[in-house]
């Protein structure tokens, strides 16, 4: 590590950050920041909640962001933000990364507040610091008053009162507050669970939770613990910290999406945790949008958890990397930054390895549930207590489970690299934030300087014209929505026709199969791709298959099901490809519709839109094979019918005649006929075909309905976001013009002083920009040298 070089680069980064903060403070105190400007924002015609970057409130946001970068530079801290949903296994993933359990796992959201987990060498037992606890204490006092006015029965109708919640209610009633320090896993679990239950309780009692008080990263709880994977590694010149972020809309709090975006903006890099089994779910879609909303200059990584649940028809590792990189993340992430893993296996294997290294044995499984989970995963469901005695065998099993988890590579690629180069990550993050600031500031100041050279009358005409454009934009949204809805209707109709065509094709292939008793020849290639050569499954001349025992009938039915799955899977692959093309075409059509609708307005205010960084981005739900999971097993339930049929048999009669026949041992004389009922197991092939067709029709109908809802929802959401961005850009231009008009209406000396002040800010901004660009290049050069 080039310690001296990093020290010098850090000094330069600190200087530039301080200079940027001073420049922002100068902008905030200039005379054009008037009360009228603030009133303008309170009465924004579009109701925009996102302040322009260079209004007083926007300047404060930028200052807070740069102050955070300055803090990370001085502390040589690299912050890796972890984002994901509760179902994706985010807490389990963090525990696997750290190597021990520091975050509790419950079947509900567990990250209402962001939490920092800082690698602290030698800190074997985790400790949580929560110095900024005052807002929580004030909340508990407010909840105490509200609880005195609320019956427990009434509260129970709006809130699940489990054991944890009951304990929290008692604490609030007794006036017990949160401590500022917690030592050990269990006290930390209890603290974090109580904080999350406070969110649920606040919502039920309609008391505002103080989320805004914890927007600054230095105010959130901090867990200090030694990361097992980093134990014994030589100290790096810097500090690695994980940031556990709240998931979008977690705990029923929609505004957490904004908090998530703010936290991601403060991170040095982002690690997303997605669920392999839910890559197309709405919750994971929210996570992807939050990540894509982060700065493109922030390094992105993705862990695709629950990869151990992949079946033979699921996407393999290469397909997952391509899907996420090229389709879900819109090319914003490199394929080699996507890692399919099993976080649970990784956590269990790592926990077992750690315990065996420290104590030479595992704890009592009756007292530590994770030991039972480890044994299930590593030894199989039939493990015995005696299997936990042989420590060497357990080490081998833990190593194999760790290998199967596929966690080793991302640990080396992300965690080790981040730890070894924490200072450089912090420096690179600071450069990225500085460049974003200077680019926006230079555009803004150029615009303001130009405005001071324009006569007041001209500015008034520009403002009036822009206000007309703003009204026109609002009216245009209705016409654009009508055109977009027409596109949607056409796409939905195309999809219905497409699904109907495939239903006919699938049923034709199924009918062909039942006519021949084997998979149609045209699908032989698909059958062979599964590693199975399909032969004759049954004699197609018979409508029923009859067997003496149930096992034989089950085997025959299994062969039929396997052949039908080949037919369905072949259709699935073709449907996936065509639907992906359909969705891509619709996305392009809608983007063109919006651009054409606003093109006249954009042409008149092109300069302002460029300064605002106006972008259009409509994200439709991409189509993936996971949505086409034909569960053929449902179609094969209860298809074997047990029948009692009469069977004619012979026997010797009782009495003298029968006795003489046995003496003579005759096969022809001395026998009488009789009938018995015998069980047979019958499969009706027409019933199998009918039930399979019904299953296909039901599935495709459901698929059509699901796709229609997703398309309509995505288009509506995209249209709203598109016009909100457009209106926000016009609002910013409107404010800039108003500020210029206010300045021009002052006396000439005041205008001259303001022009000189703005020009000095502009020169300083350009100076910061150029030095930051050079600093970025130096950091990147050193970063390349230091990479393994």
Automatic annotation (TrEMBL):
The keyword Coiled coil applies. Transmembrane segments: none annotated. InterPro entries: Dynamin_N, G_DYNAMIN_dom, P-loop_NTPase. Residues 74-410 form the Dynamin-type G domain. The keyword Methyltransferase does not apply. Keywords: Coiled coil. Residues 449-476 form a coiled coil. It holds the Pfam family Dynamin_N. This is Vimentin. It comes from Buttiauxella ferragutiae ATCC 51602.
